[in-house]
Design brief:
Layout lengths: L1 H30 L2 H41 L17 H17 L4 H13 L3 H15 L7
Helix pairs in contact: 1-2, 2-5, 3-4, 4-5
Amino acid sequence: MRAKISYTVTAAVLVFYFVLVGSRGVMLIQSGTLLTVTFGVAVLILPVIGLWFLWKNTQFVRKANQLAAELDAEGGLPVDELKRTPGGRIDRDSADEVFAKRKAETEAAPDDWRSWFRLAVAYHDARDTPRARKAMQRAIALHDGKAVQA
């Protein structure tokens, strides 16, 4: 729940910032000189890119959460079997062991979105965020019945 609140607050602050920057871009365009119109258009591009990125990221999180809820209802969420340091951090060797299991599971069933979801969690636990995201994107695509490229 805390993560949802943080995400919502961050998204709201970003939208406010994009509106503020966009209004400045419009003001520059309304000045009417070649230089200010050029800068105004350049300034307007940033909020558009930011809003697109925020929208895509929000859609990704929403879909990943839907998969987690569905997997939880099936009783298939990965069990937290990771060892932790006294400070609460995940032990690297433990994460590597779990990752090896999840990778073998995914190789055995490459078209199963559930195995890709669990692999994404293992990547995340191993602190490999880019691969975790790609594995989750693959899980989402498989779940939605979309063709997946290797």
